[in-house]
Amino acid sequence: MGNLLGRLRYKDPSTVEECDSTWETDSESDELPAGGEEEDSGISESMSPTDAVRGCEQLENDLPRMDDIMESSNRVKRSFYAAKDLYKYRHSYPNYKQSRQRSEYHNLRFYLNKIPLVPDGIYIEEILTTWRGDYEKLEHNHTFIQWLFPLREQGLNFYAQELTQDEIKEFISTREAKRRFLQAYTIMLDFFGIKLLDKNGNVGRAANWQDRFQHLNESQHNYLRITRILKSLGELGFESFKLPLVRLLLEEALVEGTIPNMRHSALEYFVYTLRQHAQRRSLLRFAQRYYQPPENFIWGPPKKKHLTVAGASLGKTDGNERRAGKTREAEDLEGEWITVRQRERLDLEEFIETIPL
């Protein structure tokens, strides 16, 4: 009966604006509710294999190249598919699936090295010990990513099973699984030209960043992988690791210009994997300072009309104060990032062992 009532109450968002609460009123709390997700009373339906394939094709079609974006300002618009997909993710897919029995937790068992990924028949320990730096394998194998970074949604590898809430709880409470998950994360970071700097999830350029960023700029299917990785970090207890990665990718795409083709995906997808409104706002304000052409920046707050009384515009002073506050917020974020990039890298195994798992 409870599930039936939930379905009756749930209203699927029908517009980008209904999917995006980033710029809601300042009175809205930026603190996460219990469980770490945005509050929502609705549910999300399970995705069929056919819908999953169609969804992944839609994601690929939504990844425009720079010349496509710059051709006409009229063509720059928010993707409803992306907004709805990330809305459901941030709201934690309520009542997404019935719980499996413990013996069926394939994702956890894979990370405990008890079963191999299917269909390749490869165990996690083999991946962790032999795949690091094998960029050809990481680039052209398309079946491992769903096992390394599981989600509560179906991917293209239908042998990989979706996570459930119960499996997530078991995974998060299993130190061995979380340790291997972090090692898998560093393998993919290295593939992208990025290194993990410390136990707080801060990241910076790796020694191989020039070649890897050039490759990343030209291989846009990897943007889908990054979205999956960010989602999986949030599902498996590393929500705080998402902000530093998205911040670095925005800086490289918009400020340094090393990955210009990524900027749309970073703004349309990566930013919106973050569950805290304040974090999304800070990243978008930072991005808006560097986005070119500025009139094509479509991820900012909705424009509000000012009422005029006796020739004066109400809220003008408040608007100036808000703009100054936003600038300070973006500058504070930038200052923190400069400090992070100056840090020495710790030994990988050493600091993974220090992370409280």
UniProtKB/TrEMBL annotation:
Domain of life: Eukaryota
Acidic residues bias spans: 15-42
Region spans: Disordered: 1-52
GO CC aspect terms: membrane
A GO term for molecular function: opioid growth factor receptor activity
PANTHER family documented for this protein: OPIOID GROWTH FACTOR RECEPTOR OGFR ZETA-TYPE OPIOID RECEPTOR, OPIOID GROWTH FACTOR RECEPTOR-LIKE PROTEIN 1
Family: Belongs to the opioid growth factor receptor family.
Protein name: Opioid growth factor receptor (OGFr) conserved domain-containing protein
